[in-house]
Known about the structure:
- The protein has helices at about 15-30, 70-80, 155-160, 180-195, 240-255, and strands at about 1-5, 40-45, 85-90, 95-105, 110-115, 135-140, 145-150, 170, 195-200, 205, 210-215, 220, 225-230, 235-240.
- It has about 260 residues and is α/β, with parallel strands linked by helices.
- The chain has a single domain, classed as Carbon-nitrogen hydrolase (Nitrilase/N-carbamoyl-D-aminoacid amidohydrolase, 4-Layer Sandwich), CATH 3.60.110.
- The strands form 3 sheets. It has a 6-stranded mixed sheet with strand order 5-4-3-2-1-14. The chain has a 6-stranded mixed sheet with strand order 6-7-8-9-12-13.
- A hairpin with a 5-residue loop joins β10 (about 205) and β11.
- α1 (about 15-30) packs parallel to α2 (about 70-80).
- The chain is globular and about 50 Å long.
Amino acid sequence: MKLVIFQFEPSWQEPQISLQRLTEQFAKRFAMRLTEVRSSSCLVVLPELFSSGFSMQPEKFAEAVDGEISCHISQLAKDYHLEIIAGVAQKQNQEFKNCALWFDANGELKANYQKQKMFRFADEHKVYRPGKKPVLASLFDYLQASLFICYDLRFPELFRKVAKQSQIAVIIANWPQSRQIHWQVLLQARAIENQMWVLGVNRIGSDGNGVLYSGGSMLFSPKGELVFDAKQSPVYEYDLNLQEMLSEVSTYRAKFPALEDL
């Protein structure tokens, strides 16, 4: 499987401009997939609130479940025959939600995760409504994946709830440069304690509040080994062998059965 991470820098609170830029990048990077009879498996991951930035003014860009941003990402997934995970702000019943949407290669929504822990330091708890449950989905019929968003990473109990059911956790984020060391250590810790693969996807650039982001999207193995660090690359690609990844989780958990003591 080809993993493509877009450490995307959005246009602040301007989703239409962000979508246009993303569409242009897809056209350049995935042009060959438009004509391939059988496209290889590919997962694209975008950061939290990728089209707006981490803004506490969602009234300017949040959308309904079938809104413009979601429909656009769905169409990109369908056109290029790939799966996409992306952070989107949604509005439902006059409430705002910070979500991670996962579309399959047919453009169908396979998972919608609502961020469970609100970032109090930025008053996110005053603006967005927290989710109440984890979400799992199949990664190309090999790995069960659990979705999380940014601040969730600081709460190990969320990961414990899905540890036995999932083999990989995917965390999309707007994690600031000032706390980059926390990002790396916490990703590694979640991998070690849950004996699972952990993929963290962050953004680069700066936002409308002057906050700096240095990317550093990373993948850790179930043993806590760093597989890759995207550093500040706008786009980062990596080939994954899902069968080997599944085998490594199963073998390690059988050899060192720490999860049996939960």
